[in-house]
């Protein structure tokens, strides 16, 4: 097994503790400073774990795949890192559910979960790599806001190739979209995974608009995207919204997927804290059933 360490050149391992649930917690550091690094170890759940890339600071970006069916569904959390940390916890909760309930995936389906596409943004807010709990999350509003971006201070959801511009918008703020589409290792890792795997649909979890949005780029909304949006919306109770029009967005991942013919939706949780598991499980199961038929 290979362990990947980062955070300013960690050099020495001080202690190793094995926890339940298939995780190693390594207390590593240099001198008196130490950093908890959480890494998964092989489990018997049937999930195939793959590191699809690394963040700017060297954190692994992990994908967990279940099933071997021809139709491939991809679920992604943490695009905006620690600012939307509940989307990461929701993704891990879904992974735990699949570990315990593998039969919900029909023989026609493959399901991949990428719990945290922006691990450096999560680390800014939690001080943890990999899994964390809500008690690890900073309560400082400035820290939470900074966790939206990767270690280059780039908004990853403005770094994809759909109407990309070097500067974009988040609410009333101007944000960096990187030096070019896919300039950031995190967005490039997702691009490479999508190009290789060609998923049939992608579901992103964000917060906090309390709605399900369809994706579109230059050619508009794909018809299947509207079906996907409505299926998740009807089952979960989130409002279905065809287009995000609160402010102009360029370079978003969902739009890029639409441009390459892959339907994608954005599920926005109601708050930045709760994972709203029961609502989202209903939406997830409805999507699994839709693609299994």
Give short descriptive properties of this protein:
2 domains; 13 strands; 3-stranded antiparallel beta sheet; 293 residues; alpha/beta; 27% helix; disordered N terminus; single chain; Aminopeptidase; 8-stranded mixed beta sheet
Write the layout of secondary structure elements.
Elements: E1 12-19, E2 23-30, E3 33-40, E4 48-54, E5 60-66, E6 71-76, H1 85-100, E7 109-114, H2 119-126, H3 141-146, E8 167-170, E9 173-176, H4 185-197, E10 201-207, E11 211-214, H5 223-236, E12 239-241, H6 253-259, E13 264-269, H7 277-292
Q: How would you briefly describe this protein structure?
A:
By secondary structure, the protein is an alpha/beta fold. The protein has 7 helices and 13 strands. It has an 8-stranded mixed beta sheet, with helices on both faces. Strands 1-2-3 form a 3-stranded antiparallel beta sheet, with no helix packed on it. A two-stranded antiparallel ribbon has the order 8-9.
Class by alpha and beta content: alpha/beta
If classified by CATH, what would the architecture of the largest domain be? 3-Layer(aba) Sandwich
> Distance N terminus to C terminus?
39 Å
> Class of the largest domain, according to the CATH hierarchy?
Alpha Beta
What would CATH call the homologous superfamily of the largest domain?
Answer: Zn peptidases
- Mean of residue pLDDT values: 87
Number of domains: 2
What's the CATH topology label of the largest domain?
Answer: Aminopeptidase
């Amino acid at each position: 097994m290979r362990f990947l360490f980062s955070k300013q050149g960690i050099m020495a391992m001080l202690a190793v503790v094995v926890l339940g649930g298939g995780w190693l917690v390594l207390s590593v550091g240099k001198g008196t400073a130490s950093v908890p690094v959480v890494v998964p170890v092989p489990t018997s759940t049937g999930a195939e774990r793959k590191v699809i890339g690394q963040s700017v600071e060297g954190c692994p970006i992990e994908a967990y795949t279940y099933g071997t069916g021809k139709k491939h569904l991809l679920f992604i959390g943490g695009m905006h890192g620690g600012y939307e940390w509940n989307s990461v916890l929701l993704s891990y909760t879904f992974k735990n559910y699949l570990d315990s309930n593998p039969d919900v995936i029909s023989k026609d389906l493959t399901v991949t979960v990428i719990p945290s596409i922006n691990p450096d943004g999560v680390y800014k807010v939690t001080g943890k790599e990999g899994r964390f709990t809500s008690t690890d999350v900073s309560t400082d509003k400035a820290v939470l806001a900074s966790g939206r971006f990767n270690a280059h201070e780039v908004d990853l959801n403005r770094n994809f190739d759909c109407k990309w511009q070097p500067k974009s918008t988040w609410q009333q703020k101007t944000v960096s979209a990187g030096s070019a589409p896919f300039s950031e290792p995190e967005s490039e890792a997702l691009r490479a995974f999508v190009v290789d795997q060609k998923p049939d649909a992608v579901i992103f979890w964000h917060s906090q608009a309390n709605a399900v949005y369809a994706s579109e780029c230059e050619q508009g909304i794909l018809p299947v995207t509207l079906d996907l949006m409505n299926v998740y919306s009807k089952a979960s109770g989130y409002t279905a919204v065809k287009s995000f029009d609160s402010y102009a967005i360029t370079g978003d991942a969902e739009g890029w997927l639409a441009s390459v013919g892959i339907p994608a939706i954005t599920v926005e949780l109601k708050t930045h804290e709760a994972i709203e598991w029961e609502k989202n499980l209903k939406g997830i199961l409805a999507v699994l059933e839709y693609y299994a038929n």
